[in-house]
């Protein structure tokens, strides 16, 4: 088969995730459509294959050492739209950025967005991403009516919450290990304007933050707190809480009401690739956090913000991951159930005492979980923080894992790049069910990744 | 897979009953449980090592390996890889030989050269092939300071380690871009079962210290480590010592 020969001769390129750690080489194959993906599958690559989107997973989820990786970003067409219901059918490589550029001016917003809009729809489903509205709207996959999945046998299966739900809920959060997501039907969210009405509250410590969140989070569509993880003792957990909802047209200033859905999403500048290792140390991060806390208003109501400012502040700097230097960084995100606030507090104390500098950490209250077997969100508190790779970090995070799993919590597969496989199994009791679905649709394990190998998924 | 923070998931010990190999496995196991493949001849010592590592938390697999058997390396590597990718392989077998015997016994010289150079080179080739295919992995080769400048008292051993050192250093360069790397470890005199009964040389070290150097070297992506570290400068000095002086040195 000529296409097989072409694949065999293609050069390998080193790939990493957003954290820029643990690079491995793989053959990266641009995929424009179903036939190309199927051709790779037919070549039975001995090291298997996995789909890759915009590679915003922090880890090795979209890497496949020595094997094939499908670059899905070249499949980004919008196939169908229904202006009445907001349902759209798009190819899996379509980015949320593109969806916003296309549909915000028409009064539709993506149902769920993470902290960056540079993720693909396929990736959003595979990682079952959540956003600031999880407590109200759930995860991205909960707004997917159906998806087309190319499975190991070369067939395309249309699955959804009521069509082969097991395969759907193994694919939602399944990190690309059930097949290649080709297309998805996504229900968009109606908006009257492209502006968000934001309330900001500064809280001096963790307890007052949690109290505020518990008492009034349900009043807001979107909610997230940025916490200072370097501050110790009494100021531990001081934070800035921003919450909001899309403004109605009549809530905009008069001059904006004429064009309420005006939206520009663009990168302003890129971080250069010259940051030395160790630039982010305790001193620089503490100084940054101090400035950030002091410049935030103590309490502000009904401030109008743009979509980028509110949802994707870091997207204004392209490739900001470079500031962590050549050794890269990890993101640690966990959730512990409500009632386990002590575990959350203990984790923060240990992080704060460890001296491992972290930029702002993010705290959020999750709402209900979904049937996704490897889906992350579950009712409780989730904390996410970036930490540069330094010696001693492996042990600290292993200890935090023990704390989290003993509290009935778990870490997030789209972020994790170092959990112990046996601890991961304890965190995800549905893993066996996931493996059974995978064994049904991919008995030979053709779909695999560095992540899958590392954790023996 | 070696994860983002350098933790290792699977370890192959070639010459798995050597003190340095066992100490390396123990050092890794002190951090996390992992899969350990012990490749060695079928002896009571191998069984004891397997048992000890299992008790320390390893998922142990045992594979036959005989450095004297030309067919053994290929079979051993295939069997070790059957249970999953190999993250780190430690090539730790070798013999010191009896310098007196080696002075006059040509067969003994041939046998030592085989076990210390030919067999490790064959094993290295098999490991490199396997790891190139899997796209990741680290090969750790136990060289020796004795290979840096062989001296009269044990030059047969020294020359065999010089060959091994050159092989793995070259292999490292040939693997650039493949995702696979090589760590050449150059210990000085190691107090172990290989050197039992011999008087300590200056700067003598222990299998545990070598294991530490291996684990740190792999984590940091080093290509060469000396144990103890100061050996690098000592050997650099000795390498440049004029021959007339070098051969008179009491080393």
Number of domains of chain A: 2
Q: Regarding CATH, which class of chain B?
A: Alpha Beta
C-alpha termini separation of chain A: 32 Å
CATH topology of the largest domain in chain A: Vanillyl-alcohol Oxidase, Chain A, domain 3
Instruction: Supply the CATH architecture of chain B.
Output: 3-Layer(aba) Sandwich
Please count the helical segments of chain A.
15
Q: How many discrete structural domains of chain B? A: 1
Poorly predicted parts of chain B: none
Basic shape of chain B: globular
- What fraction strand of chain A? 15-25%
Family (chain B): Belongs to the short-chain dehydrogenases/reductases (SDR) family.
Pfam families (chain B): adh_short (PF00106)
Keywords (chain B): Oxidoreductase
GO molecular function (chain B): oxidoreductase activity
Give your account of this protein's structure.
The complex is a heterodimer of chains A (about 450) and B (about 250). Chain A has two domains: about 80-190, 2-Layer Sandwich (Uridine Diphospho-n-acetylenolpyruvylglucosamine Reductase, domain 3), CATH 3.30.465.10; about 195-420, Vanillyl-alcohol Oxidase, Chain A, domain 3. Chain A is about 30% helix and about 25% strand. Chain A has helices at about 1-10, 35-40, 95-105, 120-125, 135, 165-170, 205-215, 255, 280-295, 305-310, 340-355, 395-405, 420-425, 430-440, 450-455, and strands at about 10-15, 25-30, 50, 70, 80, 85-90, 110, 145-150, 155-160, 180-185, 190, 195-205, 220-225, 240-245, 270, 300-305, 315-320, 330-335, 360-365, 380-390, 410. In chain A, helix 11 (about 340-355) packs antiparallel against helix 12. Chain A is globular and about 60 Å long. Chain B is α/β, with parallel strands linked by helices and about 250 residues long. Chain B has nine helices and seven strands; from the N terminus they run βαβαβαβααβαβαβαα. Chain B has helices at about 20-30, 45-55, 70-80, 100-105, 105-135, 155-175, 205-220, 230-240, 245; strands spanning about 10-15, 35-40, 60-65, 90, 135-140, 180-185, 225. In chain B, strand 2, helix 2 and strand 3 form a beta-alpha-beta unit. In chain B, helix 1 (about 20-30) crosses helix 7, helix 3 runs parallel beside helix 5 and helix 5 (about 105-135) runs parallel beside helix 6. The longest helix of chain B is centred in the middle third of the chain and has 29 residues, at about 105-135. At the A-B interface, strand 2, helix 12 and helix 15 of A face helix 5 of B.
């Amino acid at each position: 088969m000529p296409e097989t020969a072409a694949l065999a001769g293609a050069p390998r390129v080193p790939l990493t995730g957003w954290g820029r750690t643990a690079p491995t080489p793989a053959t990266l194959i641009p995929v424009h459509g179903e036939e190309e993906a199927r051709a790779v599958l037919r070549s039975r690559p001995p090291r298997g294959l996995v789909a890759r989107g915009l590679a915003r997973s922090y880890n090795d989820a979209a890497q496949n050492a020595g094997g094939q990786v499908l670059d899905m970003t070249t499949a980004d067409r919008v196939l169908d739209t229904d202006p009445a219901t907001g349902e759209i059918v798009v190819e899996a490589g379509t980015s949320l950025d593109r969806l916003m550029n296309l549909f915000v001016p028409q009064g539709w917003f993506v149902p769920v967005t993470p902290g960056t809009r540079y993720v693909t729809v396929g990736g959003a489903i595979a990682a079952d991403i959540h956003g600031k509205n999880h407590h109200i709207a759930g995860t991205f996959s909960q707004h997917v009516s159906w998806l087309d999945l190319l499975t190991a046998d070369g067939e395309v299966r249309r699955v959804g919450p009521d069509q082969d739900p097991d395969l759907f809920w193994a694919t939602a959060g399944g990190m690309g290990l059930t097949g290649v997501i080709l297309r998805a039907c996504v229900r968009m969210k109606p908006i009257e304007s492209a502006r968000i009405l934001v309330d900001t509250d500064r809280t001096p410590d963790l307890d007052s933050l949690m109290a505020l969140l518990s008492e009034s989070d349900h009043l807001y569509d979107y909610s997230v707190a940025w916490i200072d993880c370097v501050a110790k003792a009494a100021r531990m957990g001081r934070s800035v809480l921003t919450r909001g909802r899309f403004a109605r047209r009549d809530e905009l200033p008069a001059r904006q009401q004429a064009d309420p859905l005006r939206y520009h999403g663009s990168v302003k500048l890129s971080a250069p690739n010259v940051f030395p290792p160790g630039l982010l140390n305790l001193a620089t991060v503490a100084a940054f956090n101090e400035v950030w806390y002091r410049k935030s208003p103590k309490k502000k109501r009904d401030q109008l913000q743009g979509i980028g400012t509110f949802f994707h502040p870091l997207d204004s700097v392209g490739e900001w991951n470079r500031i962590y230097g050549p050794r890269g960084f990890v993101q640690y995100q966990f959730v512990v159930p409500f009632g386990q606030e002590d575990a959350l507090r203990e984790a923060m104390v240990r992080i704060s005492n460890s001296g491992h500098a972290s930029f702002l950490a993010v705290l959020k209250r999750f709402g209900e979980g979904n049937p996704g077997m490897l889906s992350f969100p579950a009712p409780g508190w989730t904390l996410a923080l970036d930490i540069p790779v330094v010696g001693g970090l492996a042990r600290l995070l292993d200890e935090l894992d023990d704390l989290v799993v003993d509290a009935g919590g778990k870490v997030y597969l789209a972020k994790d790049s170092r959990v112990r496989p046996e601890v991961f199994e304890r965190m995800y009791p549905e893993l066996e069910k996931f493996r059974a679905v995978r064994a049904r649709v991919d008995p030979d394990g053709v779909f695999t990744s560095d992540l899958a190998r590392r954790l023996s998924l | 897979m070696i994860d983002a923070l350098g933790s290792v998931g699977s370890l192959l010990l070639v010459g798995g009953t050597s003190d340095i190999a066992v100490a390396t496995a123990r050092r890794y196991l002190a951090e996390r449980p992992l899969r350990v493949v012990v490749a060695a001849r079928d002896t009571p010592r191998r069984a004891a090592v397997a048992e000890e590592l299992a008790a320390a938390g390893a998922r142990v697999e045992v594979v036959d390996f005989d450095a004297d058997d030309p067919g053994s390396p290929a079979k051993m590597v295939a069997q070790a890889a059957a249970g999953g990718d190999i993250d780190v392989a430690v090539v730790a077998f070798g013999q010191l030989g009896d310098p007196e015997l080696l002075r006059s016994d040509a067969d003994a010289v041939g046998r030592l050269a085989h076990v210390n150079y030919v067999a490790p080179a064959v094993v290295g080739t098999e490991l490199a092939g396997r790891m190139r295919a899997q796209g990741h992995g680290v090969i750790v080769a136990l060289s020796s300071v004795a290979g840096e400048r062989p001296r009269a008292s044990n030059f047969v051993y020294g020359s065999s380690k010089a060959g091994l050192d050159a092989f793995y250093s070259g292999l490292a360069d040939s693997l650039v871009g493949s995702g696979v790397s090589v760590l050449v470890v150059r210990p000085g005199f190691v107090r172990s079962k290989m050197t039992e009964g011999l008087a300590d040389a200056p700067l003598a070290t222990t299998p545990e210290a070598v294991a530490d150097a291996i684990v740190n070297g792999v984590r940091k992506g080093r290509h060469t480590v000396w144990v103890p570290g100061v050996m690098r400068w000592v050997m650099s000095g000795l390498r440049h010592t004029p021959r007339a002086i070098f051969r008179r040195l009491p080393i």
